[in-house]
Amino acid sequence: MNEAEAGISEGMRVFIRTVATFQSATDDWPGRRAAFVRQCAHFTPHAPDRLVVSDQMIGGVMTRCYRPARRAPRDGWAVLVLFHGGGWTVGSHTTHDWFAHALLQRADLAIVAVDYRLAPEARFPAPLDDGLAVWDALGDAATSLQIDPERRAVAGDSAGGTLAAALCIALRDRVDAEAQTQPQAQVLMYPVVSASQTFASLEQFAQAPMLSARGLADSIALYLPNESDRRLSLAMPLESRDLSRLPPTLMMVAMQDVLRDQCIEYAARLRESGVEVDVWHGDGLVHAGLRATQLPEVAIAYDRIAAFLTGRGVAPYRQPE
To answer: Which of the residues are catalytic?
Structure first.
């Protein structure tokens, strides 16, 4: 057993082995993206009872919207805007049902998953532009979605976490303050926040099964082919010189992950800048491990996300059924 596999449960090892069975039949982007769709569908738990799901354009971008089928509160459901992971190259608004189903078993809110454009066809800043377009148009969609645009948060896993963090920085830095609506909270799940090669976890988990150091470098090169862009705060948020005035943050750290150290450093930088930060250390959690929603160590993570959103006034927590 190598260091990347030490300290993880047998259930997590089964998850890793199962993920490896979803290989693309062809070495091209359509094949890889189709394999990712199949993989995500395999790990999607049953939907909570009485859930309304609709795919619709918001701000010119396709989204998948989840909300309870029950009568909405008078001001509408709080809303969580979700950026999917997938190395900026795979995934869509349809691939993260597993996240929505797991969270909506624990929190009463709406989730809007963003189908941002993918690299290598669309590189930085196109995915962030798409996310901002959805964010800005949520007010116009409030009535049809039964949401409260005054209560919104943002979340993302892996590459989606990069975009969630960047969206918060972009909203803060807008010149027109009236056009800015900062999230009440951000949930960053093992995000990529730096292209630096200096983090010790890059070497320690270089051959990790879900995301290797080489795989990370390849994804960054596809999203940010111009090396100068990798020093921009909207591309790699840890590069920002100013991390003040950002929303309360839940940093979900996978402790068996090449990204471990940069996630911990970003949380520390936020805290030093006066941002309220809650750090959850996922012992035994590998990159993309939140997809294994059935495992006890992962269920704890979703409890933590729901409790965090509740504590920031975004959504009421309830015990999972």
So the answer is: 158, 257, 287
